[in-house]
Each structure stands twice: as structure tokens, then as C-alpha cells.
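Repro:
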Amino acid sequence: MRILIVEDDPLLGPGLKTGLAQDGYAADWVQNAALAAHALRVEHFDVAVLDLGLPGRDGLSLLRDLRTSGLTLPVLILTARDTVADKVAGLDAGADDYLAKPFDLDELTARIRALTRRGSGHATPMLRAGSLQLDTQKRCLSLDGEILPLSPKEYALVETLIARADHVVPRVRLLAAGYSWDDQLESNALEVHIHHLRAKLGKERILTVRGVGYILVSDPSP
């Protein structure tokens, strides 16, 4: 899962990025609305965590413009503005959730998971594709009831593939899900991780669509 953090605090921004990365998320951090708008235009993110008190242009103005432009990305406002009026204004501007500072990282990540579930049409933390089951709360994958060990990158790829099981997921979408700007990305990094996943799930479980991306098959042929 790829998360954009829009936060001007020079301590909170990097701290939040590090905390999310330790939980296995690909997180990127920008400090103002202009950089956030540019990042959201040119790259794919699954969720934006948005502060309101940004320098120059505030987060509420940015959010209104993003929604006017048609962007449906889930947005969680994370701010020190905690009055009822502030919350109403943020939600009416297009936010999907609102969390006041100070906050607990576990609550933040739980809210992020809930937003992405709703955005992909899943009501529970469990994603299933045939005999595969992914628990997005515990961040574990099982095949026929057996837990499979996954690296953080492998988990990010499986989560993206299983949420769109039996449909082609473009290569660029998989790269966006698993890698932040800070990652040193080798040209064949995605292929290496897909190779490792096939070794665990079976070669027939993940199919290559040449020039496009990959498909996770719910019920592969024997």
C-alpha cells in the first residue's frame, strides 16, 4: 500500500513515514500543498494523510481542489484542529476520515486499512481468492490454511494482486504499491519478487500478461 503524507512538521512528517514503513507500508512525505498536488498528479497512491495547517496554501483548500478535479483517492485528515466545526468542514470538503493530533499510530493505521477496504469494496479485513486468504489486519497470508511467510515487499504485492484477483494489475500499479521514493529500485526488482511469490504460491497462481502486468488467479488449473 502506498501512502502520501502531507505534513509540514519536520519531526512528525519523517517520524510518521518511518513508523508506517516499519509497519510495511510504502510511504512518501511532502511538506506543502504544491508538492502534494504534483505528487498526486504524477504517481499512484492508495491513501493520502493530510494536515490542514500547511504553509502557504492550507490542506482544506488543497482537498477541495482535488475533489473538484475528480480525484477519488481516500483522504484522512490528520490535524491539531479538533473542534466539531473543523471536523465538519473537513468532511464536507471531501475527507473520508478525520483524526486529531495527538494520535496513536495503531489507530491511524487501522483507519487507513478501513479506508482502503471501503475504497476497494471489501467490508472485512479478510481478502480471499480461492484457497488464498489474506488478513489485512494481521498482515498475513495463508494457502489452504497454512500461513506463508512474506517479506514486506511480497506482502504489498500480494495485497494489491488479491484485491483485484482474476484481473490484470498493471506493472506500474504494482511498483507504486510496494516502493516509495526512497527505495533503491533495480530494473528487475518487481520480477524478482514475483518469482519469489510464485515459489510460495505455485507458478500457475500468478500469470504474466506481457507488456502489461500480472494476474493473481483465484482457482488455477491443476
